[in-house]
């Protein structure tokens, strides 16, 4: 039984199926054969950045005139799903590029910024990162301490960001900082600017094939043309997060599907007590519950995609899908690991890698509990974080 139990493919357009199949094929050929080795040695397969660009996996929903794919949000979701079947770390790299770097430049940037950066980000000539989280402000970004002060014709940036996907190898960073009035502003910081460094964070047991670092700003001079002019306030980065969280809601299903397929195949091959372990009722319960949760998650993501295409998806709806789909993916990874017994802990199978990756996915882009509280605030009208 494959993972399209409710024939979701019948609900997709020809173009969407084409995008899904070509991405799946690309991941199968270019990511699957190498990803375990890169994860084991905690190394980022940087050569894939330009390959992702060639495949059109960056900025699928950005208009074609800026180098994007001009696609709808269900296609974007399907791309995230297929990439995360390969590895959540590579989906992170791609979702940061598309939703957290290209999206804000397209949405809040000047025409000159769009023309300068978007085509290079689309091809993978440039890799970007997104700096919101700080050492003292993770779930509560409104407390950020990074400052942007006007001095004559330019601005001066000071502060530090923490846990930034892609940062040590990024060509540009979209960074959020407070101005003299305490309003949050978006800034494009370019590699090589004096006083800007991006040291790597080591010793991760999760997302080992993704590169993570800090961003440190020591009196970095920012020219006026690098300030995102069209929106300020915390709402600007939050709008980017809506997009990235939407992609994660789809992506996590990919990791869950890969774990389920691996466990199902293994259960039909592994013989114990003279029969395949898939013949035991307890294994069948695990597999049945996995497929049920994957199917529910697919339907949630698809409906959310329809709402997003119509411009109607709300932050709380996105929180529900991100929270649910990452949680079920993590539970499925744990159950799948058990079906493989001792083999489940080895790098011969992808399950343990997915499980460890999902421990980050359940924390970043808003923790599991923060999404619950966003929903709680929507239901009651009373935000609990105030
Ligand atoms: P709150 O008072 O609710 O809002 C402050 C301002 O923001 C506006 N706003 C939104 N605007 C547009 N879209 C949204 N979704 C918005 N949500 C809020 C709001 O109108 C207001 O605007 P203004 O103009 O008056 O300033 O904010 P709060 O401080 O109470 O925060 C609420 C809370 C806790 C939900 C929020 O801070 C939150 O979501 N925290 C989680 C932080 C987070 O998700 N960080 C993610 C960092 S990026 C990342 O993890 C990348 S991982 C990359 C990868 O590898 O995939
Ligand atoms: P904290 O905010 O300190 O939370 C710790 C615990 O307290 C959590 O369980 C949380 O749910 C709980 N908690 C906090 N507030 C409340 C509350 N009001 N009520 C109940 N419980 C609460 N950030 C970026 O800006 N850009 C990136 O590219 C990026 N990439 C990342 C990559 C990785 C691998 C990781 C691990 C993180 C990344 N992040 C990034 C940061 C990520 O978004 C934060 O880790 C996340 O928002 C949580 O912040 P924190 O780690 O500081 O935890």
TrEMBL record:
<feature type="domain" description="Acyl-CoA dehydrogenase/oxidase C-terminal">
    <location>
        <begin position="232"/>
        <end position="378"/>
    </location>
</feature>
<dbReference type="InterPro" id="IPR037069">
    <property type="entry name" value="AcylCoA_DH/ox_N_sf"/>
</dbReference>
<dbReference type="Pfam" id="PF02770">
    <property type="entry name" value="Acyl-CoA_dh_M"/>
</dbReference>
<dbReference type="GO" id="GO:0000062">
    <property type="term" value="F:fatty-acyl-CoA binding"/>
</dbReference>
<dbReference type="InterPro" id="IPR046373">
    <property type="entry name" value="Acyl-CoA_Oxase/DH_mid-dom_sf"/>
</dbReference>
<dbReference type="GO" id="GO:0046949">
    <property type="term" value="P:fatty-acyl-CoA biosynthetic process"/>
</dbReference>
<dbReference type="InterPro" id="IPR006091">
    <property type="entry name" value="Acyl-CoA_Oxase/DH_mid-dom"/>
</dbReference>
<feature type="domain" description="Acyl-CoA oxidase/dehydrogenase middle">
    <location>
        <begin position="129"/>
        <end position="220"/>
    </location>
</feature>
<dbReference type="GO" id="GO:0033539">
    <property type="term" value="P:fatty acid beta-oxidation using acyl-CoA dehydrogenase"/>
</dbReference>
<dbReference type="InterPro" id="IPR013786">
    <property type="entry name" value="AcylCoA_DH/ox_N"/>
</dbReference>
<dbReference type="InterPro" id="IPR006089">
    <property type="entry name" value="Acyl-CoA_DH_CS"/>
</dbReference>
<dbReference type="GO" id="GO:0004361">
    <property type="term" value="F:glutaryl-CoA dehydrogenase activity"/>
</dbReference>
<keyword id="KW-0274">FAD</keyword>
<dbReference type="InterPro" id="IPR052033">
    <property type="entry name" value="Glutaryl-CoA_DH_mitochondrial"/>
</dbReference>
<comment type="pathway">
    <text>Amino-acid metabolism; tryptophan metabolism.</text>
</comment>
<dbReference type="GO" id="GO:0050660">
    <property type="term" value="F:flavin adenine dinucleotide binding"/>
</dbReference>
<keyword id="KW-0809">Transit peptide</keyword>
<dbReference type="InterPro" id="IPR009075">
    <property type="entry name" value="AcylCo_DH/oxidase_C"/>
</dbReference>
<comment type="similarity">
    <text>Belongs to the acyl-CoA dehydrogenase family.</text>
</comment>
<comment type="pathway">
    <text>Amino-acid metabolism; lysine degradation.</text>
</comment>
<keyword id="KW-0560">Oxidoreductase</keyword>
<dbReference type="Pfam" id="PF00441">
    <property type="entry name" value="Acyl-CoA_dh_1"/>
</dbReference>
<dbReference type="InterPro" id="IPR009100">
    <property type="entry name" value="AcylCoA_DH/oxidase_NM_dom_sf"/>
</dbReference>
<keyword id="KW-0285">Flavoprotein</keyword>
<feature type="domain" description="Acyl-CoA dehydrogenase/oxidase N-terminal">
    <location>
        <begin position="13"/>
        <end position="125"/>
    </location>
</feature>
<dbReference type="Pfam" id="PF02771">
    <property type="entry name" value="Acyl-CoA_dh_N"/>
</dbReference>
<dbReference type="InterPro" id="IPR036250">
    <property type="entry name" value="AcylCo_DH-like_C"/>
</dbReference>
<protein>
    <recommendedName>
        <fullName>glutaryl-CoA dehydrogenase (ETF)</fullName>
        <ecNumber>1.3.8.6</ecNumber>
    </recommendedName>
</protein>
């Amino acid at each position: 039984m494959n993972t399209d139990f409710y024939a979701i493919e019948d609900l997709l357009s020809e173009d969407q199926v084409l995008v899904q199949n070509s991405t799946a094929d690309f991941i199968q050929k270019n990511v699957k054969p190498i990803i375990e080795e890169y994860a084991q040695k905690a190394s980022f397969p940087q050569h894939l950045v330009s390959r992702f660009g060639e495949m059109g996996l960056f900025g699928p929903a950005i208009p074609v005139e800026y180098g994007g794919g001009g696609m709808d949000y269900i296609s974007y979701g399907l791309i995230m799903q297929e990439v995360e079947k390969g590895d959540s770390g590579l989906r992170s790299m791609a979702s940061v590029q598309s939703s957290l770097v290209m999206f804000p430049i397209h949405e809040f940037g000047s025409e000159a910024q769009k023309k300068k950066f978007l085509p290079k980000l689309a091809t993978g000539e440039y890799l970007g990162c997104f700096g919101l989280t700080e050492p003292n402000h993770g779930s509560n970004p409104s407390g950020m301490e990074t400052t942007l002060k006007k001095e004559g014709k330019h601005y001066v940036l000071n502060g530090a960001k923490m846990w930034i996907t892609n940062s040590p190898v990024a060509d540009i960073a979209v960074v959020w900082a407070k101005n003299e009035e305490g309003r949050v502003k978006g800034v494009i910081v370019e590699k090589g600017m004096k006083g800007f460094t991006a040291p790597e964070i080591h010793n991760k047991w999760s997302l080992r094939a993704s590169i993570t670092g800090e961003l440190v700003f020591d009196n970095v001079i920012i020219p006026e043309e690098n300030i995102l002019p069209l929106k300020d306030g915390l709402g600007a980065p939050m709008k980017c997060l809506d997009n990235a969280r939407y992609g994660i809601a789809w992506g996590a299903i990919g990791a869950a599907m890969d774990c389920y397929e691996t466990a199902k195949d293994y259960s039909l091959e592994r013989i114990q007590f003279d029969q395949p372990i898939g013949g035991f009722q307890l294994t069948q319960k695990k597999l049945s519950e996995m497929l049920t949760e994957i199917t529910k998650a697919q339907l949630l993501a698809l409906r959310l995609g329809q709402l997003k295409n119509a411009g109607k998806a709300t932050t709380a709806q996105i929180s529900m899908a991100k929270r649910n789909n990452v949680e079920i993916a993590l539970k499925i990874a744990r159950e799948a690991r058990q079906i493989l017994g001792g083999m489940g802990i080895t790098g011969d199978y992808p399950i343990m890698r997915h499980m460890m990756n999902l421990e980050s996915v359940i924390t970043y882009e808003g923790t599991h509990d923060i999404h619950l509280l966003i929903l709680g605030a929507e239901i009651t009208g009373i935000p609990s974080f105030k």
